[in-house]
Fold each of these.
Amino acid sequence: MELVTTAFPPSSAGWPASRAGAVLSIDLAALAANYRLVAGQAAGAVCAAVVKADAYGLGVAQVAPVLEQAGARQFFVAHVDEGLELRAHVSAGAGITVLHGPRPDAVKACLAGGLRPVLNSLEQIGWVRQAARATGRGVGVVLQLDTGMSRFGLSEADVAELASTPALLEGLHVELIMSHLACADTPADPANAMQAACLRRMAAMLPPAPLSLAASSGIFLGPAYHFDLVRPGAALYGVAPNRESSGLLRPVVGLSAHVLQIRTLQSGDRVGYGLTWQASAPRRVATIAAGYADGQARHGAGQQCAWFRGQRLPVLGRISMDSMTVDITDVPQGQLEVDGMVDLLNPGYGVDALAEAQGTIGYEILTSLGRRYHRVYTDGACAAEHSHAGEGARA
Ligand SMILES: *Cc1c(COP(=O)(O)O)cnc(C)c1O
């Protein structure tokens, strides 16, 4: 047995192309185009960029500078440590806001790192107020209000308490008041208008500040939801903001996996763990190098497929940890051989389509993308080549 002496785990750029089982391509030109499109959609508002969870799995080190170049000046992350990491990838003037705000032990690091905290509770306001007093200068903060989602933010009672006791905000400059929509991907849902009205009503009790409500889907509800700042994440990465707007944004992610083995099945032969799939006629099948450890949801196997030159290749049987088996019977002989590549995501079959097949949403597809892929960041020009010809894997 060979002893593996390479440094593990792999870097965020994934494994070398020559050895990786699959290649993930990320089109940075499409990313920039999507930012400009979304910003144009909310032209009256500041368009921030949400880059939490390593820019939705696409790599904050590569993604954030491109978004800044495209015009983003305000960035949102979820955690203090994500904000500290992001600091190294944007210019000093860029604003970084931490959606969760700091836990007590993280207040110092948050403020010292120049990160703007979102304050979600009176308790959290207290921690940061104390720290602001200790520094002797004002601290810029964002207040989040709970307008109906019961997830984050100050309640009506909390806001009333802040209104009657202004000293609770001493030393804190409220630079933004925000909330978050629960049903923005369903434009007809009455909760949307109720939440917007609730934000206005609650904010009127507080010191005047710019307002923010919309994430990706909310932006596409129209100007009544834009307020002063919008916070898109998913749309930048090519996830459709609602059913009506699929096709509006450019796909950002492509994924191709190597064929490891090809075999011919006879009628009656079965495939995979549990032998759950059985051939009812002779079949050619390929085992490809992507499995549930790479984010290919095991429970999604029934509907999932791969693609080769426009040909749909159904997944047969259960998805394994490191591989899955696909039906290549309809691919003409000689076109696809061992070490060739098939697509799991391509311009015609994107994250939303794969999400639908797996019974989830594009967000989860992106944030589940595996760490074992070789990552190729393109300017769009060579994305197709990487995802179809397999050249990227040998470059
Ligand atoms: C994640 C998040 C966003 C971005 O949401 P998308 O739907 O990805 O655009 C905006 N605001 C808050 C509070 C979030 O948690």
Note: The CA atoms of residues 49 and 75 lie 5 Å apart.
Amino acid sequence: MTDARPRPKMRTVGGTLEAFEQDLISNLYYQRGTTLESASGPDGYHTLAVTVRDRLVGRYARTAAAHYQANPRFVYYLSAEYLLGRQLRQNLLYTGTEQFVRPIAEDLGVSLEELEAYDVEPGLGNGGLGRLAACLLDSMATLDIPAVGYGIRYEFGIFKQAFRDGAQVERPDDWTFYGNPWEFPAPDDRQVVGFYGSTAPALDDPSGLRRQWTPAETVRGEPSHMLVPGYGTPTVNIIRLWQARASRESFDLSRFGAGQYKEAVEDIVQAENISKVLYPDDSTEQGRELRLKQQYFLVACSLRDIIRRYRLRNTGWDAFPAKVVIQLNDTHPVMAITELMRLLVDEYRLDWDLAWSITRRTFNYTCHTLLPEALETWSVELLERLLPRHMEIIYSINHFFLQEVAATYPGDLDKMRRLSIIQEYPEKRVRMAHLAVVGSTAVNGVAELHTRLLAETTLRDFAELWPQKFHNVTNGVTPRRFVRLANPRLSELITERLGDEGWLTDLERLDRLAGAADDPAFLERWREVKRLNKVDLTHQVERSTGVVVDPDALCDVMIKRFHEYKRQHLKLLHVITLFNRLREMPEMDMVPRTVLFGGKAAPGYHAMKLLIRLVNAVAETVNTDPVVSRHLKVVLLPDYNVSRAQVIIPAADLSEQISLAGKEASGTGNMKLALNGAVTIGTLDGANIEIRDRVGAENFFLFGLDAQQAVDLRRHYEPRAYYERDPELRAAVDAIASGVFAKGDRSLFAPVVDAMLGRDEYLALADYRAYVECQDAVATAWRDRDRWTRMSVLNAARTGFFSSDRTVREYCDKIWRVDPVRVEPD
Ligand SMILES: *Cc1c(COP(=O)(O)O)cnc(C)c1O
């Protein structure tokens, strides 16, 4: 850091600059086998990473010791995804060693930025759900909550997105190609997991509920862990990631000897495929059998590890729910419920009722969706084959559960059919969300509207049966990564204004900035910060797309996975409308805008991949039009990920949160953007509602149908009527249909037009007029610089609620009932 102000006292484990430099040189020599003179870039990066990491290891050891001593209740967070973001800067910040690195790097003639180029982000997640897991773990460590995250160490993370002729192409994300300096293998804790095979009755069990499973295939789970440091505290928790390895017998030496090389390693390949790739879709199932194997692999390894840890300090099973709370991040890890039942009943020989009581008190479930197609189900046929014992257990759980239902609603067969864990028609499938609710103590939605709609629609029968099970815990984001690391300039300005860095762990203190929203000098500095961030973004845009954009234009961003319900196509209709207006009236005085899209589409999601082509085609047409491009630029930044988010978000003026109301569970991008002073244009959906409540209606651009109106309209909706009635809408749709963006080819984007005029599933045409008018109001507001900046300041000042620290506190109070354990300071 180059600031001359005395820095606030930082709890640092850095020691002295001299010691840090010594360690660097020694690590370079002993870890990389090289010297300063001959070190390569990767050598430099790796050495720096290890030197910083080593400063966390002492903290981790003390955390583990404190946890062992206290024998507290632990939170075990089970998630198929973690979208951690880059580690180097974070760990420099959390250890207070960034101050050393600058001068040392300068001495050596490299910059921190050059070294950071080698810091690869582990892309072990798709989007919001995985990023939430990372934010919650950051906050748990920061709040000294004893916690372990469990996940899969995918060999290939979320694909890298590139464009060829405007179309998305997916490249594998070989994120460990140069090694991952941030993880520690823990081979002693490996586990063995079975699949397939058969079950038989346990002869000594008259109830028939205990059985013995003999798997036909076994796979080893090799754990490694990544450190999850807290900010401003010595606590360092871990995420334990499992990688699949073939069991030792899998290598067929005799076949190899006989020259059958491929056959000799067949079993190895099959076993190791389990953790090979992250499924690039968080809402529909793919590669079914392998995906289910992944899910079971994760929970089987993790539960064995949780039990191993429990038994280090506890005996018997009575205390299990008092010491272990397991949070299921969506339905992906829900098989953990059946696996714990299997372990307790079959392996540890507990009576069914006791096992069920323990299980139910141990688990909690976070639901992340409202879309019916995103509610996971698995075919009974597949489950019976892959996990025969678990299927039996599901039947038993369902049997006892339906008895309970029958007692509550005598004779109501329809109710039983709706509540059942098994769906009967059109084929027998297991409803994972139902299993999750039945097997958990608490079920939570992720924003107020989402929780309400869950209880009224998707999980209505359950909410009636067990109203006390349902909770809301509105999502949050970590201000360390999404303000302090992403936006150092703004952080410095905030710290200067508020007097110290306390806001970083008590984000509601940002409300003290509200007073500054009327201070012209402060507004000027705020604008200057935003402008410098926009200059940085401009450089990144130019480097990755070649498009030159004006840092003074309104920076209008829509960054999120491409999905129909999020309505990138509505944004595109607005862009095309601006394009049409400028073509018609070249002299018009339009507010200059840069419209920035970022996001990947699932490789099999053809409608969204076509939309990506259309976005790129519109961008090309707009950016090369001599008249239009003076006022408007459109960019689809390739490969949106956490690192890109950290550059885009600080530069954003306008945050697009335009999903059809009632479809977005919460959103967290909306929170990151508001905290960085972007003003939201959005619908009454997900956490947008809570953002608007806090920033004030006058500082939020609201448009469109609400959730109820959307449901009502859907019943008799005719998109064509909107198209016929609104000349600007018609012109925008016609422009796509005419081939203007496809060099005259009318067929290429015809499916997009057909989807809009046919069913328009997400009512984009119905919301179009309100949206365009709202965008015109945005432009008017933008022209008044002080008014806009005031709105921007108030957005940041009033969104401190959306810190994931607050989210974790709510989980602790409402659901986990865990207490912090303090770790001895450095
Ligand atoms: C925050 C974040 C998301 C979630 O964005 P939404 O707008 O809430 O869907 C997705 N991807 C990345 C990389 C993020 O950082």
Note: Residues 394 and 558 are 42 Å apart (CA to CA).
